[in-house]
C-alpha cells in the first residue's frame, strides 16, 4: 500500500503540483521556483518504486531497505509534525492526512523490520 500511496503522491507533486495546490486553496503558497516541488515529487515517486521492489522481493533479504524506507517515513513525520506544531504548514492536509498515514506506515514498517530481525527457529 505504501508503494501505491507514494507513487500517486509522487506523480501528483512532480507533475500536478499547481493543480494540487489550487485544489487545496493554497496556490498563493507555491514556491517561486516550481522545481523544488517537482524534485520532492520525484523523490517520493522513487521511494514508491523502492517500496514496490521490497514488496515483491524477499523481505528478509531486503531488511536493510525496509529500514531505509522506515527512516524515510520517520523523516516526513518528524518534519511535518514539527512545522504543524509551529503553525507553519501551508495546509492542514499535510499533517491530518499525509502525516497520519505516514505515521501508520512508519509503525507497520518498524514492526516488520523488528519481526524480520528475529531468528527463525525451525
Short overview:
By secondary structure, this protein is mainly alpha-helical.
| Percent of residues in helices | over 70%
Q: Rg from C-alpha positions?
A: 16 Å
Question: Can you write the helix and strand succession as a string?
Answer: HHHHHH
Q: What composes the largest sheet? A: none
Q: Count helical runs.
A: 6
Unreliable parts: none
How many individual β-strands? 0
The fraction of residues assigned to DSSP E strands is under 5%
Content-based structural category: mainly alpha
Straight-line distance between termini: 30 Å
Shape: globular
User: What is the arithmetic mean of pLDDT?
Assistant: 95
Q: How would you describe this protein?
A:
There is one protein chain. By secondary structure, the chain is mainly α. It is 74% helix and 0% strand. It contains six helices and no strands. It has helices spanning 2-15, 17-23, 35-56, 63-85, 93-96, 98-117. Helix 3 (35-56) packs antiparallel against helix 4 and helix 4 packs antiparallel against helix 6.
Amino acid at each position: 500500500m505504501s508503494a501505491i500511496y507514494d507513487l500517486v503522491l509522487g506523480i501528483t507533486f512532480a507533475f500536478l503540483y499547481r493543480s494540487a495546490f489550487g485544489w487545496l486553496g493554497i496556490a498563493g503558497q507555491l514556491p517561486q521556483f516550481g522545481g523544488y516541488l517537482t524534485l520532492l515529487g520525484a523523490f517520493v515517486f522513487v521511494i514508491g518504486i523502492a517500496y514496490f521492489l521490497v514488496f515483491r522481493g524477499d523481505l528478509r533479504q531486503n531488511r536493510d531497505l525496509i529500514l531505509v524506507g522506515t527512516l524515510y517515513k520517520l523523516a516526513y513525520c518528524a518534519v511535518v509534525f514539527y512545522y504543524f506544531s509551529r503553525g507553519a504548514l501551508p495546509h492542514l492536509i499535510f499533517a491530518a492526512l499525509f502525516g497520519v498515514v505516514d505515521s501508520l506506515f512508519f509503525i507497520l514498517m518498524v514492526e516488520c523490520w523488528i519481526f524480520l530481525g528475529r531468528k527463525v527457529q525451525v
